[in-house]
Amino acid sequence: MKIGELDLGERLILAPMADITDKSFRKIAKDFGAGLTFTQMVSAEGVVLNNFDTLRFLSFSKLEKPIGVQLLGNNPDIIFDAVREIERFNPDVIDLNSGCSVSKVVKLDFGASLLDQPVLLSKIIGKMKLASTKTPISVKMRLGKDNSHINIIENVKLAADSGADYVVVHCRTRKDKYEIPADWSWLDKIKSIIPIPVVVNGSIFSPSDIMEIKSRYSPDGFMIARGAIGNPFLFSRYNSIINNNFDPGEPNADEVFATVQQHFKYLCEDYGEDPAIQKIKKHVVWYFKNFSGVNSLLDKIFSFDNNRELFEFVEEHVYRIKNSKYKNFDNASVQKLFNEKINFWELSIENKV
Ligand SMILES: Cc1cc2nc3c(=O)[nH]c(=O)nc-3n(C[C@H](O)[C@H](O)[C@H](O)COP(=O)(O)O)c2cc1C
Questions:
Q1: Which long-range contacts link 321-325 to residues 24+ away (Cβ below 8 Å)?
Q2: Mutation choice for ligand 1 from 17, 113, 141, CB with most ligand atoms inside 8 A
Q3: What number does the ligand 1 atom closest to the CA of 15 have?
Q4: Which residue owns the Cα nearest ligand 1 atom 28?
């Protein structure tokens, strides 16, 4: 897929995820072969006001390129100014968030609430295009408000007519919960009515999910969100399938451990060691969620405040996995909980593994 000057080839795109796709996460995804990564959504108003937190979430290193920045807002003039500001940092794409269904975002009339306001949506995209001198503009949207109000066809057409360079379709409605599988069947209809590239997003967790989509529909690109959490291997596996016709398969515990160590190194560079220790813990759970012993990991992992002790514990965990010291477990049930809530260990006790 081509986005302006950028030729992604067949490489996958890492989705924007608030509190997840920070610099270290993006670097890992890039190391493993993601073609394009995204900052989390940032407030357009925060950009214009030079708000400290907004700029922190927005900041990226030139070494991270290609990278996209995602804007959240609903005021066309403010978004115009934000695009002008952001262009100075030279990102590869600027995206408009029209898909976030989190209540505090929708209450402000941002994110997925734009799906019900075609005139405003069109005006915002038009202003983004006008503000941008060289950066491609994209729109990430859901199918509609709920199953009775699906208006993706109208909205993608409107996005294309207003100048968007491509669209990302998260194939769920605003009302759908995350455990409901995405409905990819909209893709062909969408592709048939707009001339710009269409990127599919939703429920892509493995190379076989991508192959299934490819065998039935023809999106131009694939954007991965939860499927990349604790699993940058999806990017390298898919690239290997495309380039060498060979799937190296799921990583073993040693490969996962090496990736955790690299991720921690990046977190230390970005935040310093103490915050990095706190931040790596949930990633460790996500990295090892497909292996036996998840409960034992969860019992202790959050209690460590010391780098050496934490990593000795994880090393011991890897040893126990490799030497079959844990009972076999139902991998699918962890995945089900993860789909419901990424911090699945916070679910009520009756839901637990
Ligand atoms: C923790 C989390 C944070 C997210 N933050 C954003 C965001 O900042 N902007 C956005 O457009 N979507 C956000 N999303 C939605 C994802 O980008 C993606 O559209 C959604 O998870 C569906 O893809 P998946 O089924 O592959 O997870 C977030 C999702 C999760 C799980």
A1: 321/253, 321/288, 321/291, 321/292, 321/293, 322/252, 322/253, 322/254, 324/292, 325/293
A2: 17
A3: 17
A4: 17
Domain residues of the chain, as ranges? 2-244, 253-351
Q: Cis peptide leading into 195, omega within 30 of 0?
A: no
Determine which residue's CA is closest to atom 14 belonging to ligand 1: 17
CA of 325 to the centre of ligand 1 (A): 35
Q: Whose CA is nearest to atom 18 of ligand 1?
A: 225
Q: Whose CA is nearest to atom 15 of ligand 1?
A: 17
- Please give the model's pTM, rounded to 2 decimal places: 0.97
Which class is domain 2-244?
alpha beta
Give the separation between CA 183 and CA 251, rounded to whole angstroms.
Answer: 28
Q: Output the CA 315–ligand 1 centroid distance in Å.
A: 31
Per-residue pLDDT of the chain (353 residues; tens, 9 = 90+): 999 999 999 999 999 999 999 999 999 999 999 999 999 999 999 999 999 999 999 999 999 999 999 999 999 999 999 999 999 999 999 999 999 999 999 999 999 999 999 999 999 999 999 999 999 999 999 999 999 999 999 999 999 999 999 999 999 999 998 989 999 999 999 999 999 999 999 999 999 999 999 999 999 999 999 999 999 999 999 999 999 999 999 999 999 999 999 999 999 999 999 999 999 999 999 999 999 999 999 999 999 999 999 999 999 999 999 999 998 778 899 999 999 999 999 996 555 65
Q: Choose the residue to mutate in 57, 114, 170, 224 for probing ligand 1, maximizing ligand atoms within 8 Å of C-beta.
A: 170
The residues, any chain, with a CB within 8 Å of residue 258's CB and separated by 6 or more, are none
Q: Measured from the CB, is residue 37 less than 6 Å from ligand 1?
A: no
Cα gap 97→124, rounded to integer Å? 11
